[in-house]
Specification:
Six copies of one chain form a homohexamer. The N and C termini of chain A lie far apart (about 60 Å). Helix content of chain A is about 50%, strand content about 5%. Chain A has eleven helices and three strands; from the N terminus they run βααααααααββααα. Strand 1 of chain B pairs antiparallel with strand 1 of chain F, so a sheet runs across the interface.
Chain lengths: ~300, ~300, ~300, ~300, ~300, ~300
């Protein structure tokens, strides 16, 4: 359960309202690397947390903090849009980039749909879509998703920092950039607790013998023409999990050509398709026999007869 | 540029076609943790690769391999759907889970829209959306996104393995599970080359002094009521980047209450809203003065006068 | 800013786990009438609140409560899915509707993507999309959107109540149904404070004389063929705002036929389109002259010459 | 069934084509508060109308009218884009806001994808998504959704009115603003016929005794720290439905901590998660016993043993 | 402008309500090949029609007819769902496929969100998205899009015909199948009027000399390994437009390797990326010089200095 | 399976980087008529190909080529964005349209989310959605979808050609325009092999006698008021399939008024709806008896009793 005090986690001050920057800040609210994403991702991971209780608490605490970040950013957008409406209708002062952004059609939805406030959209006006919430049920997989989210999140915040000269906005971003740095570390700390690279592969609870080990430590090159295989930590030496050696292999078609059955009558393919399925030797030429399961094919033929 | 030989990277054999399993396999094609996602993610990372050339080559090789995985899975879906159409219309053999799945309405779009073939949709029929392609321009951030993708991808493959008894399908999944294990390791190997946790925070090219250091190593607890702060690797001891010490702090509202201006005339708020903005002491009561930027407020008042 | 105590607002008890009901509960989490929608809608309305401060507080309090509802429902989904995984793989007890739902392919994504937990999706597996967050900047418009959300929300909860026999689930829904009833009333109470129907139309700050009054109180019938115009409170008697009388009128084409210019060269229409624009009398026949702005047409002709 | 005369419901005249305004008008076509939304919403409500026939007729008449509004707006967009193409390529007259909008990248999709015509997108180019069609089967809930749609729709139209100086466009909007005013009233008139606030809560057909009455008239405050509860029509006095008294209560966690089971084997959580579920006293500390259903927990333990 | 008589274009009769079939019919309403798509596509093509007026009239007439088809199908869905609600809660008669579909979780949203009516969703519950409306401004391109829509539409209708034994439903589909046949022909008739294949390529108004003619009639084979090039009407003989001869060529990389600049400072790539761009000979090896524009590279270097 | 040589199919050279043109090129990558669409569409058609093997080979070859086109365009976007980042922060040279586009807010996501690279989005920043992949299982239907895709694709490329003066970009587009011309012809060549218009209607495998022939060759006019029916190749003369004669008929409501049952109790409609269903003569007036299936109605009444 949740409580509020109606206050902001950190000061949000805008010295010079700038509608263009308002639009750019939207990426940090409704972008795929934004705060709605991390807040909801951590909430759903917490609400479905199974296993050591401390991880549920950890997730819940940080999710609740991220909610305060959306609040800060939404306040920042609203403050940057103050005075924005007039610019649209009057069109004066065209040397001001902020005003130009309104004349240029930016922030239209912010005015038209929300009356100069923040919206759950990205910097192009695309609404956030909750399919970006990763909560897989595997703690290590989720932690990597969280590190990725905080890495792109901090990257975004540094780019936003680059785009503004407003001291208030720089101060706010300096705080958010620090929080994202900590959050990267805290999720990696969980991974370290879980064994780090020694606990690879994820999931580590799947029986090792059911994995095709021949392909588990091989870099597969799909390069054509004798082009060189990229060399690095991944191409030779001990694997990161310490259980084998990395090596490389050229990609090869082990599977042969796929061979689907003729379209069934009830799929209403064109008549010409049904006449021309497998077995038409003049069309197939001298192809090698498929390595696919004849069993399935036989069954279909039975079913159709 | 790309080339094809029309063959499968690994054998795809279905001994007992199972439309329900076809639907489940769709998650590995069009799910957010599926193969379209990794193929396109690695392609876009490669096409925008800036910096050491070997990483572009690495990404391009693996992207091209993932394309072959979509092909394998699409073939597997098609083979599992063979004979499917008849089940829909005839409705016999209700003790067979596969048939029941058709009667139950599963795989309808696969029949209705594609004539019993794979589609770029997930196991609930939701089409894949390319906003899931992460290519941030920062190699470390991208590598973590790739590890997350391969971790959820392998997790999905193990769950699919659990759901089938078909030897052909188990064999194919055993191969894909191995490839995902290698891909986890190869992206982590790049991170190791880049310095591992020593290179935190991501991005490491942002000037450290512009980050609010006070909050960069602190776990912030939003717990109420004297509830205990979750303790772990993240709450004390040296930070993962080796530059500081982790510590904890209770969340506190540094920012005060947000204070937005009265709605501007041209936003067409209700008349009652415009009459009741900041300064109406009877409505605001004895709130403490906001810590927000008065400068912005003054500007707006000027603009409206 | 926000705080949590890690506890549930109301008891969530599942006596008989039922994966089918888990799927149905998803509609109350990620459906368009679900709890994510109201939580985020009230948050964004609060964060952009301009005007009397008490409404910001009101919205913030209820938004925070709704967050606790998502938490309750997510817990309920997880509990209903416990034991679900085995059903998928073993397929026993086919007379149990819950098990049949797994065999029938329901809840696949819940297992495949989240390991038997709640997801921000609806009962068909479609992710929630934040374009459903209405925060217009006009308090009355927003309140009606909120009443609509709570009305469809309570409707959904009653339908869910109908679908379960589990005493724990019925108890939880009985609580949520009550909360939605209160929330309907509280948003309508704001509307009453703002003047109720006397404050129509929304927005009431737009100058009345700039509205085409001739059409502001008329029910327009588009019925053909002498079909009767539907009669009711809207077709005669004083208008709800007390300023005029309702009346009815038959739809009539005041605007004439639209007349667009020939495609410009740079739009690369087919050559035949460019040859056949306005002015080709044999194709236009004896149409009446358009009432559209000749001025625009002239300008375009000038521009093209 | 439907018929057309190929004419416009009201005059659409553009004196000075303005591509920026074309883009802004798109919000009224494909925005969530636009005309496609109301047209399709009323059609689906009509097509599924059950109950007094006059409401089906009412909805059908107005849906058909709204279709004519999309036609008017599409014509207006096309006329505002006439001449637009050349501006993109030539880039002259940079003091003209309309031309600047093309240089600034606005309306690109309108040219690139539609050859200077209207599209079913909003002012940021996001396509309309039919999940916004509300047709719940409960007439009162639907009417509130309709009032909300017409309120945000009229609000949008007034903002568009503010953004143009074109006499033809102002005249068209003056008409649409009037129609939205009437539509607000006509849907509220249906609510009045259904009993108005006396018919609360929606749905009124759910048995009152199955609602948890203790929470049905209480404003729940989630404020922390002795912050004042917002006072208003919703916090005391008779409820709007006349059946009880409003009162307030502080939010309290009645439900205790949620307690999910250890991850099942087949969810392939990390091994460390499975080892650390409920019962690990050192990790749980001295938490109070959960109030959640032990029955479910027992069942799961049985299932796993 | 549009009118209605409240009647159905063709008889909609359901002899045996079948909720499973209701769900399948949804594909014809809200699927990408469904009736919402064609109705809105033809409307937008008509509203933006430029060129011979008869094509606007043609499109408008058929769009209006398609609206009546959505109405018919929505009525059919509602009738197939009658009685559906009880099945969900009672769960009797499990040998009935229709009932099983409810138990299996199908049609949940139809009940939960719409009270047993049609919704603008497909057979998997995914809402229709208006990005599927093709109206390009080029009449020939649009006509091919229309033929494609009617071809997949008729295909869908034949598959639905296969899935039902209900005489009323078969009769309705028999009508819709006929309409789609006619609509295929009528759009192809427009193409014939425009010159058929002689008018290729589309658009035919683009100056021929600005096309790279060397590649305009060549089938490019990307096959590897001496695999045979597929032979057919496209590989030799006169081209369809009569202006040249078809021939084949093997794909060859004319463009060399792409060479992007080192990441700019303000993109906050990892420090290691910035150090390792083009020019680092040890990483690049003996690659051939890129054929990309050095001019751009020089400019960037200047800009960074 | 697939291979790569890391090279570009055709030269990509940018002489004058132009961020605005980068944004416009995005339409050709992630727009609905872009290269991701055709690549994935042809791949899915190939992977599900049933019938003559040569068509699978044909599709696979061209799909693989299209992948190289995405690569070319992504390279072109990256090159056009080089130097773009500085423009955003410095804001100099406002007479340069490219710089203005950055100030105007264009390409923000390209910088904020991808560090100045291509993304799988359209020119308005909307991500590509894989529901646009058409692979129906009927070869003729798919070929028409392919022609439509290549027609809108070439149209887009010609419009892009119009928007740039960069010789490198014009050269690249000249190549892509030629490829789209060939691809239009090659898919039409398949249709010719399948019989052309003689093979209509699609699907041609559906039994002709199950189609309502009365409506299969009639243009249905929905025009009101004696407006003339549009005349053309579609309104008289032999049908394109050579089996009948085209004729016209006025739309007529054969189906009567739809008559749905009263809402079932468990749908929780408002009480007033349930009281007012069919049979309430005072509300229905003297409507003619519906022609809908009484059988269904009777069944529902039985079910409710």
């Amino acid at each position: 359960m949740y409580y509020t005090d109606g206050k902001l986690q950190y000061t949000v001050r805008v010295d010079s309202p700038n509608p263009l920057f308002a639009r750019q800040l939207q990426q940090a609210i409704g972008g795929i690397e934004g705060e709605i994403r991390v807040a909801m991702q951590y909430f759903f991971q917490a609400w479905g947390s199974r296993g050591p209780r401390k991880y549920r608490d950890l997730l819940l605490n940080t999710a609740t903090e991220e909610l305060a970040h959306i609040e800060m950013l939404s306040t920042a957008v609203a403050l940057n849009l103050e005075g924005g409406g007039k610019a649209v209708s009057k069109g004066v002062d065209s040397s001001n980039p902020a005003i130009q952004s309104m004349l240029g059609g930016i922030n239209q939805k912010s005015y038209l749909s929300s009356g100069n406030n923040a919206m759950p959209i990205d910097s192009d006006g695309v609404p956030f879509d909750m399919s970006h919430i990763y909560a897989s049920g595997n703690l290590a997989a989720d932690m990597y998703a969280n590190v990725a989210a905080e890495s792109t999140g901090r990257l975004l915040a540094t780019r936003l920092y680059e785009l503004t000269d407003d001291p208030g906005m720089k101060d706010m971003l300096s705080f958010l950039i620090a929080r994202d740095a900590m959050h990267q570390q805290q999720w990696l700390a969980v991974i370290e607790e879980l064994g780090g690279t020694q606990a690879l592969p994820i999931p580590n609870s799947f029986p090792e013998e059911q994995q095709n080990e021949e392909f588990a430590y091989a870099f597969v090159s799909t390069a054509i023409d004798g082009a060189p295989v990229p060399q690095g930590r991944w191409s030779e030496g001990p694997s990161l999990d310490g259980r084998s050696e990395f090596h490389t292999m050229a990609a090869e078609p082990i599977g042969g050509e796929p061979e689907l059955s003729t379209p069934p009558k009830e799929s209403y393919a064109q008549a010409e398709q049904m006449a021309g399925g497998p077995g038409q030797s003049d069309q197939l030429g001298s192809r090698q026999p498929s390595q696919m399961g004849g069993g399935a094919m036989e069954k279909v033929k039975d079913a159709l007869s």
